[in-house]
């Protein structure tokens, strides 16, 4: 199939997204307006005059290479990944190189392996197992293996680090399948602790509302960052995120806020595109943790996703650790309690378009990572 790549308008891009069952929110035009430090453009793949694929490209210059940009397609593009990849990616490379990119980074929205919650639970209980990849019998996806092989053959370079978290999107995620399931089915799939916590939140009178009180969310979020030792994003980032994504579609983004006797105790942000919903940001107070506001928020979001016909509730990134001594294992335990499955995706890959510039960029990124680790 002969496919050409050319710029498309925001309206054309959105029209394509609306026709798909699953497109990452990171591949919507609105996300380009959220990432203000990048220049964004929408590209379309045409077979004749028919638009058959679309992608959001984020362009960013890097120090000492300002003549060129890194072209980044997070969790995209939205193309037929089961087809002949050269037909799709070669015209993308030609277009981006002609327009000043020194490299392309993309993250195919394709999984390679999945582990059930029960298998993850077994691994967490086994001191001899320290990583998801050490668990026997994962569910393998042949499309994912094919995509990884074709990318490698095409000169693409894998960028996923050992812990699954690089400078881009995580390679390991946690997902709760919703298609064909009822609320009772999902509850039965959760572990006993999760079910007990959801019931306790209801018994304690925790109320979850959907609203627009971003200041209340941000106060909880900054508190969470101080407690859990990460750098919070400013309030302005979330204001931009809500404005850009709400303008794109009214149902695209929502803020859930849990209160107990009037006090905010937890908050979370849900994003939905088509039949997929993502838990993107969460926050909770240290006080009143016993009323389980975070579990109440998650359950409210899952129930809404179910009612709206979503097929997947995506809890986003985890590390592949199952080591009891690793501080990240708590995140795996929390998300595995929802049932569902841990997923390994193809990960992010780079294609150098200008090798000298790419080597300089790679050296810069390595030095930056070394400096970060020393801090």
Automatic annotation (TrEMBL):
InterPro entries: Acyl_CoA_acyltransferase (IPR016181), FEMABX (IPR003447), PG_Glycine_Bridge_Synth (IPR050644). Keywords: Acyltransferase, Cell shape, Cell wall biogenesis/degradation, Peptidoglycan synthesis, Transferase. The keyword Isomerase does not apply. PROSITE patterns: FEMABX. PANTHER family: LIPID II:GLYCINE GLYCYLTRANSFERASE. Belongs to the FemABX family. This is Peptidoglycan bridge formation glycyltransferase FemA/FemB family protein. It comes from Streptomyces boetiae. The lineage of its organism: Bacteria, Bacillati, Actinomycetota, Actinomycetes, Kitasatosporales.
């Amino acid at each position: 199939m002969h496919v050409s790549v050319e710029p498309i308008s925001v309206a054309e891009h959105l029209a394509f997204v609306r026709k798909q069952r699953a497109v990452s929110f990171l591949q919507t035009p609105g996300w380009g307006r959220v990432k203000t430090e990048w220049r964004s453009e929408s590209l379309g793949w045409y077979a004749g005059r028919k638009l058959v694929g679309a992608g959001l490209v984020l362009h960013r210059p890097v120090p000492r290479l300002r003549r060129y940009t890194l072209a980044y397609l997070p969790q995209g593009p939205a193309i037929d990944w089961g087809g002949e990849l050269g037909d799709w990616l070669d015209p993308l490379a030609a277009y981006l190189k002609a327009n000043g990119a020194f490299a392309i980074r993309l993250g195919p929205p394709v999984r390679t392996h999945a582990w059930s919650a029960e298998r993850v639970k077994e691994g967490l209980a086994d001191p001899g197992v320290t990583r998801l990849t050490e668990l026997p019998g994962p569910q393998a996806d042949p499309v994912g293996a094919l995509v990884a092989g074709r990318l490698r053959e095409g000169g693409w370079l894998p960028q996923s680090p050992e812990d699954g978290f690089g400078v881009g999107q995580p390679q390991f995620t946690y997902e709760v399948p919703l298609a064909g399931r009822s609320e009772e089915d999902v509850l039965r799939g959760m572990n006993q602790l999760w079910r007990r916590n959801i019931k306790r939140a209801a018994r304690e009178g925790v109320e979850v509302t959907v609203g627009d009180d971003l200041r209340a969310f941000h106060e909880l979020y900054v508190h969470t960052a101080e407690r859990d030792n990460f750098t919070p994003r400013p309030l302005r980032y979330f204001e931009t995120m809500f404005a850009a994504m709400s303008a794109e579609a009214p149902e695209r983004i929502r803020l859930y806020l849990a209160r107990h006797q009037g006090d905010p105790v937890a908050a979370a942000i849900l994003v939905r595109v088509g039949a997929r919903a993502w838990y993107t940001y969460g926050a909770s107070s240290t006080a009143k943790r016993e009323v389980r506001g975070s579990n109440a928020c998650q359950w409210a979001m899952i129930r809404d996703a179910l009612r709206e016909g979503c097929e997947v509730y995506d809890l986003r990134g985890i590390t592949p650790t199952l080591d009891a001594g690793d501080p990240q294992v708590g995140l795996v335990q929390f998300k595995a309690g929802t049932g569902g499955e841990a997923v390994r995706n193809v990960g992010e890959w780079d294609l150098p378009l200008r090798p000298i510039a790419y080597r300089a960029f790679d050296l810069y990124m390595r030095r930056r990572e070394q400096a970060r680790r020393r801090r």
